[in-house]
Amino acid sequence: MSFSNLDLVNECDSFPYYQTNPSLYAASLSTYYSLRVHGHDYPLGYLLPSVAQVFHNVPHWDLDSTQRTLTLIAGHNADERSEAVRQTLLALRKTGHFKVLEKWRDELYAVYGRNKELLFRVERSASPLLGVVTYGVHMTAYVRVPEEEGGMKIWIPRRAKTKQTYGGMLDNAVAGGMASGETPLECLVRECAEEASLPEDVVRARVKAAGTVTYFYIRTEKAGGETGLMQPECQYVYDIELPVDVVPRPGDDEVEEFYLWSVEEVKAALARGEFKPNCALVMLDFFVRHGVLTAENEEDYIEIVARCHRKLEFPTL
Amino acid sequence: MSFSNLDLVNECDSFPYYQTNPSLYAASLSTYYSLRVHGHDYPLGYLLPSVAQVFHNVPHWDLDSTQRTLTLIAGHNADERSEAVRQTLLALRKTGHFKVLEKWRDELYAVYGRNKELLFRVERSASPLLGVVTYGVHMTAYVRVPEEEGGMKIWIPRRAKTKQTYGGMLDNAVAGGMASGETPLECLVRECAEEASLPEDVVRARVKAAGTVTYFYIRTEKAGGETGLMQPECQYVYDIELPVDVVPRPGDDEVEEFYLWSVEEVKAALARGEFKPNCALVMLDFFVRHGVLTAENEEDYIEIVARCHRKLEFPTL
């Protein structure tokens, strides 16, 4: 089985588009519940009916089965709302009803409103239940080599086989979720040390912000836990050109090893479907920005570029 | 008057989004006619009612005021359809009804179907009447300077004041429309010679493909001709780092002069609204890809990146 680059995009950005398939989009929306916060009359995420119905008669929440909305009605500010969400999720976790809550991480993700104001914080493992936008950082690390050797080699880590999610799959050099209160760059510097043992001074001197990759993922069994949960995501994308003598090394038990691969080797691994879905998307965006993929060698070029930068229907930071 | 970067995006990508404003989007769609080709049951572009109604009882076309569709019914292949479109447009041009047709250019743009097949060709000046997707190339040329001088300077041309469209505004180093049958790279090499007198060997050795910028523009008076016409566009984006001794020079009377500006000077000109709208978008995309704009210094970062890469609702190449 060989995957085209567009196949890889379709796997990660799997929620239908209104623009190209209005009937499928409408059918999806009429199935799902939309998450709201009282006083903020717009969706913050989508929930499966099987998830929304669990909030029936739960304190702090109003479930409207006619409008298909789940509204957080507790609290007058972000702290009060966050506490209400925390209480609900701790109670749900105790019941053992949702598998994703078994991976409780004690990390808080931020959910923003239309004016970029913090509405509430939510435990990381619970964010796909609510279907809210989450944020992360992904960095591609590469080394310049002579043009006749392909111009660059790319550092690619393999995730530990024991990792609960996407175990054994390929990843971007450094990637991590952005906790509430962190800036993207601070998050990246922290993850560079934790995941790849890259010294802070090297990172700060060499790293280059290169945009965002946004997509709307529907979780499959590879993600672990319930399938079909909706995960609209924004990854801040960074590049770093490393000197040959700076070698990324696993800093924790999440990475098995780092490979230094040619562009052709990375392309082959992508085609084998070995990359974690959103890491494949970040890799494709890197290839587009660096002129590896072009209009002349990739027939789905325009589609791939647009799909790596989806405009989400929920407010973003 | 100072423009934020998001203001500049809004000016160029001005067609409403279903995702964030479904009611405005629906109201727009119920106003416009959609262009179709017989046997291809999907929209290829949107037309103003005032434009569509002119096609009433015109040979080769079927106007359906109930479905609000204008369908090209002539021809069984691209050549036959193109000839029918040409005959219609030549006749319309003679009537003097549409101002945009006074700028007839004898250049053909290609319109593609869902399988990337050529459906028909259309005279460039007429493409905004039909509201079809058009393609172009935009290249940013820059020179490396020491970090203490800002790291790079950027070549910025000013359009001739006599130019019918966006006269006197700032542009990207090289930009041009892609004629039917051209590849993006061939188009770029040709435009580099014509517009900036850049030698072909320098361009081929140094130019780097860097993605696409896609947006949905609604024409204003600055574009000349009828206003309100819809122009969904895809620009293939290129960067070129030039040596200090390669100086772009106007190759025709379309460019007045080239400036070599610092990033700060370019930012200031953007904020003054001096750039042609789609050139501003290409400049913002360049700044994002080169780490000039970051999540830390641009509050609308995520929105800007997504909006520079709109997924259009029409088939693209």
Description:
Chain A has two domains: 5-14 and 134-307, Nucleoside Triphosphate Pyrophosphohydrolase, CATH 3.90.79; 32-129, Transcription Regulator spoIIAA, CATH 3.30.750. The mean pLDDT of chain A is 96. Chain A has helices at 5-12, 22-31, 49-52, 78-95, 127-130, 184-196, 200-206, 263-271, 277-289, 301-307, and strands at residues 33-37, 40-47, 61-64, 69-72, 108-112, 118-123, 134-144, 152-159, 174-177, 208-218, 230-241, 255-262. Chain A is α+β, with helices and mostly antiparallel strands and 317 residues long. The A-B interface holds A 17-20, 116, 183-185, 208-212, 214, 234, 236, 288-291, 293-296, 299, 301-303, 305-313, 316-317 and B 17-20, 116, 183-185, 208-212, 214, 234, 236, 288-291, 293-296, 299, 301-303, 305-313, 316-317.
Q: Based on DSSP secondary structure assignment, what is the total number of beta strands of chain A?
A: 12
Q: Over all CA atoms, what is the radius of gyration of chain A?
A: 20 Å
Oligomer: homodimer
Question: What is the total domain count of chain A?
Answer: 2
The biggest beta sheet of chain A reads:
6 strands, mixed
Low-confidence stretches of chain A: none
Following the backbone from N to C, one meets helices and strands of chain A in this order, namely HHEEHEEHEEHEEEHHEEEHHH
If you consult CATH, what is the topology of the largest domain in chain A? Nucleoside Triphosphate Pyrophosphohydrolase
